[in-house]
Amino acid sequence: MKKQYGLAGAVLSAIAGMASAQSNVVIYGIADAGITHESGGAAGSLTKVNSGAASASRIGFKGTEELGGGLSAIFLLESGYKIDTGDIDAAGTLFNRQAYVGLKSTAGTMTLGRQYTPYHSTLASVADPFGTGLAGTSKNLFPDSGANVRSSNTVLYASPVANGVSGELAYSFGEKSSTSTGRQFGGAIGYAQGPLTVRLAYNSKNGDVETAPGITVHNGTGRNTLLAANYDFKVVKLFAAYGVDKGFNSAPLGNANNPYGGVRPTASTDGNEILLGFTAPVGGGSLIASVMRKDDKTAFNQDARSWGVGYIYPLSKRTSLYGAYAAIHNRNGAGYTVANNSESGSGNRGMNLGVRHSF
User: Would you say residue 280 lies in a domain?
Assistant: First the structure.
């Protein structure tokens, strides 16, 4: 019996050790669903159940391992899904949102894999009172899609914070015979102290395409610069941002499928955007609003203006109700649409009503 207890004790001890070793692995996610109404486009009025209007629905795994001497190994794997249908966001891709591994120390953090760009992180966390979600999202006019949001094959360094100053540098390999083909790089530097946050971000994408080894179609480079700031007065938090886009594919349209019919709009290759907004505590929740302007400096002069308003009411620390409405005024055949966090939209007006739960 003593041997049996000894064996059982050894097994239990091993299981306890495994559980202890895995205690720094966290499963997390967001379940977000609501009703979205879109109008003003060639498709007419559409009402549907939408997944991720405020924050894209997702499930993720992240963890750390202490290696000693202040050095830690870290990883993150995050997959997006559609709560209205149960489908994954991108067919054939398991961790389409983020997938990286790296090391963290007092000298900063270095990660390798698929990651957010410094440009998107600045737009979402500093510039946009909607956090790039809901109908009032900055995605309506700012170029926040595709490789501007996340880049694969990326090495990213994030510095430690020193006297409120921090920075990021990112380089994405094009992985072609020419080192410049398809590569992307960018960075950000910011200051956050007390109620003030300011951040400057830059992103550069090489649009060349290698059709065969040694044969390249040269499209040029798209560049995005973003200056963002917010200031918290407690009774209201103010937001401002100014973006400049130049070059090939620097500002792709969120909905490139000619949503208004007629002559297909042309994506700007030389333009800028400006955003002003605020959040304010009202009635136990948060009132959100912003106005934006797109100035297309090309010969097409396809400018646009937009505004949005929303309200988020927390039912608990992890669950909230939300509602939002936004509208866009396009000029000279511009094709901007009212989007949300997960969809690009089909017209110049949009509304969301839903619930978001974090776990």
Answer: yes
